[in-house]
Amino acid sequence: MTSVCRLFLIAGLSLALGACSIFGGGDDEARELEPRTTAIGVNGYLWQATLDTLSFMPITAADPAAAVIVTDWFSDPEVLNERVKLTVRFLSEALRSDGLKVTVVRQVRRDDTWVAAPVQAATALQIEEAILTRARTLRIDTNT
């Protein structure tokens, strides 16, 4: 597992453990599906959760009108020969798992040149889950 994947996994697990009570059923589950569209045109919880989750990465574009957040290249200080770049697209105004899509691009350095490298399929899903968990926590904190 790459160090970047491990970093997102740790972040996601930390968020999930901190918000484990949000997975109960009942009225909370129904309210979770309700959109919380703000003046920015996307789900406010998902937008803020994405900014929070990716706060350790440099953001190059955060355009709510286009419903997209793009990071610049990020390298873990312990693994300087590898870097990643993320794009998060918001597909729905509802706080749901299909409300966003994360795309991860990974490069490795070979002979002083950055070349494309494969990304584990689970990496984007782990980042999406970390964002969703944070969004649910924000929603719960707002409603209490």
From TrEMBL:
Signal peptide: 1-24
One Pfam entry name: DUF3576
Keywords from the UniProt entry: Signal
Listed name of the protein: Uncharacterized protein DUF3576
UniProt source species: Eilatimonas milleporae
